[in-house]
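Write out this protein's structure.
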Amino acid sequence: MKDNAVIRAENLTIRFARRKMPDILAVRSVSLSIGEKETVALVGESGSGKTTMGRALVRLLRPSRGTVWFKGQNVTTIHGKRLRHYHSQAQLIFQDPFASLNPFHTVGYHLERPLMNLRGLSERVARETVSDLLMQVGLTPTLVYQRKYPHELSGGQRQRVAIARALAGNPALVVADEPISMLDVSLRAEVLRLLQSIQEQHGLSYLYITHDLASARYLAHRIAVMYGASIVEMATAETLVRSPAHPYTHLLLAASVGSATDALPETQSGAPDLTESRVGCPFAPRCPLVMDRCRVETPPLVEVEPDHVSACFLHQEGTP
């Protein structure tokens, strides 16, 4: 656990109720911390719980169980003015910049509103500050872009507006939810470099959510791999890519573009069981190395080397 953690989640659980069906645990007892000026990548396939975890950290979702600490303060159940202030400190960049921008309003409007609502700036000062935000994300001449509507921008330009909007609240933490997945390949590296530059300039902490280990390795200091609502492995970016410990991480690496990692043969494909009654390792139905105990016991995260943990019985003493 990092002593300088900007945000720390302890045993976080997010439950979604379903009518006449068992409840879903989209996040199951997950603990995660992000330090000052640190980028942690949360990696996994669709449905693993990454986005739900990110939205819980910025309190767009209220955890069912567990605690969220922000700079030493418990923000799990805050509401009203305290929650509004927290939203200025913890911002979210959505995956689809076109869907997250109102097509009836200009770029200037999208940036003025958080400046006024979250930072309490007057309309005049907010309008003057918009130019600075647009310059930071590389949209110049700023006056031209302030007057544009979302449909008049390219995908990369819309995402830059979304990044500028996240910066408007002057946050300490930004959750970037697959910010490059909707962009052309040629634009992805540009946006990642922009995020790096902004982090250096403002001293931000990032939770970078992605299914792509290649971009996670480029941007992140640490990588947490999530599957079936649980974190199954966590290490520094270099260590995790060089020597993955969990079979699911091997699978993700093999699926990465240009990877030289050989894929392990899966025993089946399909979505993991997210019901509360699930027992055993969430990856057991797909794992080619599954053992009998994997189907009835949930492996805890254990250290396989310094600063590298994995939830797999293959790394525990006494495992047959």
